[in-house]
Amino acid sequence: MKVLLHICCAPCTIYSLKTLRDEGMDVTGYFYNPNIHPYSEFLKRLLTLENYARLSLMPLIVDKGYNLTSFLKGAIEYGKDRCIFCYKIRLERTFIKALDEKFDAVSTTLLYSKYQRHEEIKNIGSQLSDIYAIPFIYKDFRIGWKEGIEASKKLNMYRQNYCGCIFSEYERYKGEVK
User: Fold this and answer.
1) Where are the alpha helices (H) located in 57-160, listed in sequence order?
2) Do the domain assignments include residue 178?
3) Which of 44, 99, 106, 168 counts the most CB atoms within 10 A of its CB?
4) CB atoms closer than 10 angstroms to residue 100
5) What is the rounded distance in angstroms from the CA atom of residue 69 to the CA atom of residue 65?
6) What is the H or E stretch that residue 160 is in?
């Protein structure tokens, strides 16, 4: 089965990729993340992922689209549920790419993070699966959280400390700003 794996960052890819490959899936990564702020962070995450893709022999499709204005407008309209907007736009773009490139299924490394809203991701994936007639592979990759962290540290991989958007960056650092 050819799977297009939406990837938020390299550290979240390690365990997700291993799991899907262990189940016999042919995985191609897909980087589409207009939510990541600032742009220098976007580039750092992309470079880290490109290096890991080479190391792991994972084909990688990169969408360098970075429409920050549209992302911020949509996120603000969703208010406290801005993460749902973020999941929707990134997963929908992944399903469209999977349809265009003739992949058999879609999954996402967002399912690796214990900080993400798994039920929402699962529901959005299921809805998009119905719309685009491509299966969404839901896996609770969180069980490999520790394994993925240890592997990323061994690889001396850049590891970010916030989700990616300006809102999560603010929430992460607001208590530390004096």
Assistant:
1) 68-78, 82-100, 118-132, 145-154
2) no
3) 106
4) 9
5) 12
6) none
**Phi, psi of 157, deg, nearest 5:** -85, 145
- Is residue 92 in a domain? yes
H or E element in which residue 42 lies: helix 39-56
Domain count, the chain: 1
Residue with tokens 């916030």: 162
Assigned token pair, 87: 């999941």
What's the one-letter identity of residue 61?
I
Give Cα 168 to chain centroid, integer Å: 15
In angstroms, the CA 80 to CA 94 distance is 24
Q: What is the pTM of this model?
A: 0.92
Say which amino acid occupies 136.
F
Return the bridge partners of 106, or none. Answer: 4, 136
pLDDT digit string, tens, across residues 134-167: 999 999 999 999 999 999 999 999 887 766 666 7
**Dihedral sign for Cα atoms in the order 18, 22, 23, 26:** positive
Structure tokens at 93: 């773009």
CATH, residue 36: 3.40.50.620
